[in-house]
Specification:
By secondary structure, the chain is an alpha+beta fold. The chain contains eight helices and twelve strands. Strands 10-9-8-11-12 form a five-stranded antiparallel beta sheet, with helices on both faces. A four-stranded antiparallel beta sheet has the order 4-7-5-6. The protein has a three-stranded antiparallel beta sheet with strand order 1-2-3, with no helix packed on it. α4 (about 85-95) crosses α5. The longest helix is centred in the C-terminal third of the chain and has 15 residues, at about 185-200. It is globular and about 60 Å long. The protein starts with a helix and ends with a helix.
């Protein structure tokens, strides 16, 4: 998909490591592409986006409505000072014993747990810590729809809705269905997405916004833009996605 997007622009891809690392070149200009990462974001912003709690802290400071993510440092860390289990228990009680526990550097719905008992909270937190991961907690919101916006250089290039079907999660890879965003929501979602990208200083990213009973809240930000599952639901979307990748690659080669 990415290579095809610039097939008419005299851009070549030389494989360095199969399906993983490439040298992208046009004329005398080139860059190394890591997986689907074209390198438009600075390293500090990328690390920040990888942390759910760090992302929330920056957005909260910037006044962007977002789902709270409370950081829990692995108890086995040499930097640990407090007891993460006690902190988790307090957060659990504060939010009516219904929370979401996940690894702080979450990845595509892996190691994400809906928690409704103290016993499960302790067990799953121990599981994450045993994997040498830090964790975070957020309140649980019942929500049918989650919206994803693709932002490139301060402009929203694509909006899609993810409808939850058989799971409480909204991951497309987990069975949710992608749909078009209601026209009435586009201005608000676009504004929130661009504010989010600006706050995190990201030039190319996807922003996920949860539709809750208390309003629209930014759930997470992904510093790598992956749209394979979106295309699977409707192959006619391929041209639009290809145009986004093309613009990103040509921007990187400037």
């Amino acid at each position: 998909m990415i290579q095809h997007s610039v097939s008419a622009d005299q851009v070549s891809f030389k494989e360095i490591s199969p399906d993983y690392l490439y040298r992208v070149q046009r004329g005398n200009d080139s860059f190394i592409m890591h997986d689907v990462e074209v390198g438009l974001n600075n390293s500090s912003s990328m690390k920040l986006a990888q942390s759910k709690s760090g992302t929330y802290s920056v957005l909260h400071h910037a006044g962007v409505p977002a789902v709270e993510h409370h950081f829990l440092l692995n108890n086995q860390s040499r930097f640990a000072k407090g007891n993460a289990y006690d902190l988790a228990a307090k957060f659990f009680q504060k939010h009516n014993e219904k929370v979401v526990l996940k690894q702080d550097n979450g990845s595509q719905g892996v190691n994400v747990f809906k928690i409704e008992t103290s016993e499960d909270l302790k067990a799953q937190l121990s599981h994450l810590f045993s994997l040498q991961l830090n964790a975070c907690l957020s309140p649980f919101y019942t929500s049918t729809y989650e919206y994803r916006m693709i932002v490139l250089k301060g402009e929203v290039k694509l909006l899609l809705a993810k409808e939850r079907l058989n799971s409480w999660k909204h991951n497309l890879i987990g069975g949710s269905r992608s749909k078009d965003v209601p026209t009435s929501l586009i201005p608000t979602l676009s504004k929130m997405a661009t504010q989010t990208a600006h706050a995190l200083q990201l030039d190319f990213c996807s922003v996920d916004i949860l539709d809750t009973t208390t309003g629209l809240l930014v759930l997470e930000v992904n510093e790598q833009v992956m749209l394979d599952e979106y295309i699977k639901d409707d192959p006619t979307r391929k041209d639009r996605v290809s145009a986004i990748y093309r613009e990103a690659i040509l921007e990187r080669l400037k």
